[in-house]
Predict the structure.
Amino acid sequence: MNIFLEILVYGAVQSSIYALLAMGFCLIFGVANIVNLAHTALYMIGAYLIYSFFSVLHLNLALAILLSVVGVALLATGMYRFCIRPVMASEWSVLMITIALAMFFQQLMIFVYGPADRNVQGFIGKKLTLFGAVDIDAQRLLTLVVSVILLVLLWLFIYRTRMGKAILAVAQDREAALFMGINSEGVYLTVIAISAVLAAVAGAFIAPTIGARPEMWAPTLGKIFAVVVLGGIGSLEGTILAALLIGYLEVVISFSISSYFGEIVSVVVILLMLSFRPSGLLGKRIEA
């Protein structure tokens, strides 16, 4: 019974991080048709920024998180304006330039912080006992709560606000949206900023648990690909479902067999889905 509860709790935490990252990736592709391979590099940078602001400079936690998120959002919009937008007409060029950016950021972090992992001070140092049986770091629980809140806010923003409706319109038919007076460039920048915020928050809140590492973006990118492929490229609902499935599957395998086997779950999922159901579980573009 204890193992089942541990899987339930730790799987939820794992899934929440995957959902935050995959939702940002899904939004960028679904709206702007951009496959941003540097997306998880923003997650890595978010981890390093929270390390700098909170663990090194000892700024107030709220201010440290704000500065980290704003910094990553500004970096992402700059990447779009100066690196991605000029080559958007070529999908291969976008793929090449974004993977090059990701590797550049990795080397930049090594140059600035060194190759060793950086331990990030926990936001909450306590341990909690859930259901009277499962001990969990309060930091992990905080990560889960923040992730769920952000996902709910994102859903409300997309489906209940004017800008959200504009995002849906551009995702569905860019030319028709232009005729309706919607500024597609403004929509693209908004989506880029939102995805960067989600990545930065994921990196900032997971950093006290796993640390800040220069290579942390690469394996995470594979997992996010698996989530997006499993859920269906462009499907927000499918992305959430896939994040839960992969997150829990990894935890179950890690608990029952080995953490090393848990790491290959994403690769197996990608191979199976591309072979038997390329459209994913709920494959579709974002719809109003």
The longest helix spans residues 2-32.
